[in-house]
Amino acid sequence: MTPARILLVYTGGTIGSFEDPETGALRPFDFDHLRSRVPEIDALEVSLDFEPMAPIDSSDMSIERWGELARLLFHRRERYDGFVVLHGTDTMAYSASALSYMLPNFGKPIVLTGSQLPIGVVRTDGKENLLTAIEIAGTWDSADPERGPLVREVVIYFGDELMRGNRSHKQDAEGFQALVSPNFPALGEVGVHVRFRRDLLLRPRGEARLLEELDPGVTVVHLIPGMTPEALSHQLCIPGLRAAVLRTYGSGNAPRDPLFLGILTAAQERGIFLVNVTQCSVGSVDANRYVTGAGLTRIGVEPSLDITLEGAVTKLMVLAALHPDRESLRAAFKMDLAGEQTPADTIR
């Protein structure tokens, strides 16, 4: 078989840094440095190219940078069979989610990975993450008569876990299992062998497209006991605001205070779309389980099921650029675009 053609895209992050022997500062590597640090890369049965972007810390990620990355991947799509994106862990879940919506029906693997320690450090987790990510991106679907790639969606490989990108969340600032998929099973079990869950892998449902425009008019309101009406109102009066994610308690609960609900109602009357996303890492919004959640649904706040915060925010940014009014944005948000949420009738 002809080896899969894989493009390795470097955006920045810990995995691509090495310590300057003179200054002790972390500097971004180049492809030659990568090969010298990870000689096993040459043993992989793939044809590998390297394309660096201007490296940034992932804390500096922006919608402009997402647009740049999405355009790069889309315009290289016909040239390569798969892509591996080296990315910092802090905003990796946001970037993976954004790319899943910006590149619908991409039809080829986009595997994001990174590390907690630089790739030149003796105990680095970056080497295994990188090698396995490349292997995953270069795996053919043996059941496909046209010999396409097995994975055809945006995924994250990190710490022995292959997960859907828009289902991921960073849970640990120091551990090697930094990223998890709290509400959706792993797409593959990675040990001595990589065993994929074929029944969970997405397949394209149309032509590949590039949605490079995002609307920054999205905010997050994290509810806390004692939040004043003034604080809530201020967050919902941002000029240009199109949508807000309400980070609620438990299964989607919020205060029943009429003043609180009145502020939310007034925001919706101004055309702002409100989405109910739980503060809990695991579980789903069940707006009718308690009266404190049902009140939000009655005034028009959209329950989000089990979508992650990262998945909800980036989905709203992409959809708000496409839909000019609140109700069309609501209708689009309720649709499953890239496997980002579990259908309501299957959540228990």
The figure for the number of domains is 2
The CATH homologous superfamily of the largest domain is called L-asparaginase, N-terminal domain
Instruction: Give the radius of gyration.
Output: 21 Å
Provide the β-strand percentage band: 15-25%
Unreliably modeled segments: none
Describe what you observe in this structure:
The chain folds into two domains: 4-196, Rossmann fold; 218-346, 3-Layer(aba) Sandwich (Rossmann fold). The radius of gyration is 21 Å and the shape is globular. It is an alpha/beta fold and 348 residues long. Helices cover 26% and strands 19% of the residues. It has helices at residues 31-37, 63-75, 92-102, 126-137, 229-235, 258-269, 291-298, 309-320, 326-333, and strands at residues 4-10, 17-19, 26-28, 46-52, 82-86, 110-113, 154-158, 161-164, 169-170, 179-180, 188-190, 194-196, 218-222, 243-248, 273-278, 302-303. It contains nine helices and 16 strands.
Please name the defining characteristics of this protein:
single chain; about 350 residues; alpha/beta; Rossmann fold; eight-stranded mixed sheet; four-stranded parallel sheet; 9 helices; about 20% strand
Compact overview of the structure:
By secondary structure, this protein is of the alpha/beta class. It has helices at 31-37, 63-75, 92-102, 126-137, 229-235, 258-269, 291-298, 309-320, 326-333; strands at residues 4-10, 17-19, 26-28, 46-52, 82-86, 110-113, 154-158, 161-164, 169-170, 179-180, 188-190, 194-196, 218-222, 243-248, 273-278, 302-303. It has two domains: 4-196, L-asparaginase, N-terminal domain (Rossmann fold); 218-346, Rossmann fold (3-Layer(aba) Sandwich).
